[in-house]
Amino acid sequence: MLMIGHRGAMGCAPENTLLSIHKAIELGADWVEIDVHCVADKLLVIHDETVDRTTNGRGKLIDYSFEELRALDAGLGQRIPTLQEVLEVTVGKVGLNIELKGLGTGKVLTSLLRNTPETYKNKMLVSSFLMPELEQVVRLNQHVKVGVLAGNNINESIAWATKLKAFSIHIRLQKVTPKWVDRAHDLGLKVYVYTVNKVVQIRRMKELGVDGVFSDYPNRLTS
Ligand code: G3P
Ligand code: MG
Predict the structure, then answer these.
(1) Which superkingdom is the protein from (predicted)?
(2) Residue 6: CB atoms within 10 Å
(3) 8 A C-beta contact, residue 67 and residue 57
């Protein structure tokens, strides 16, 4: 079972920062998950549409320029990273799951991938709750793996995953049942579960046969 560091290793360092990603690698994560929003045709690594919770700034991303956002402190003196920076620090070291958060992210990711060497794409998975963004990625980057993030309606998400020929479906811990795991596996989908932080939960997911878990503490997967 894969251990995927959630927003890097957000239980151990400020989420979605390069420090958090380095920490996840140090703690032995197989993959890291990050969230991206589109700002001025670039992809910035941040979870929310506002900067309040994770930086020393106030307000919405759209009310900032790219340079202003880059000047904010995202915790322990870290800047909000660009996706390009994350690609550089993860390539050859750890798999990268890019979660598309905002509108327009699929289009911008597509143009970034056009100039990205194949080596960066070998261990890359693009996921989203936003099916139009994923659709765009699939249409324009057939070689990139995609994962459907399932909310409450797993049936609907499985239908989307089938339509998009997705690699994986990502299910909330509270929604996982043996039935869903078997159903997804029967359709050839990997099952990744978020967010799994307690050792006992991680063990239970392994027993259930899921293929990977997202955790804020990527060192909590014991044998
Ligand atoms: O990709 C799994 C998980 O990150 C989805 O939820 O809100 O943490 O981005 P969220
Ligand atoms: Mg996420």
Answers:
(1) Bacteria
(2) 28
(3) no
pLDDT digits 0-9 by tens, 80-104: 999 999 999 999 999 999 999 999 9
CA distance linking residue 190 with residue 210, whole number of Å: 8
Q: Ligand 1 centre and the CA of 194: distance in Å?
A: 7
Interacting residues of 169 by C-beta distance below 8 A, sequence separation 6+:
147, 148, 150, 154, 157, 158, 161, 184, 189, 190, 191, 192
Token pair 């029967």 is found at 186
Model ipTM? 0.99
- Measured in Å, residue 34 CA sits from the centre of ligand 1 at 8
Domains and CATH numbers, the chain: 2-215 (3.20.20.190)
SS3 content of the chain, % helix, strand, coil (to 5): 35, 25, 40
Q: Is-catalytic flag, 47?
A: yes
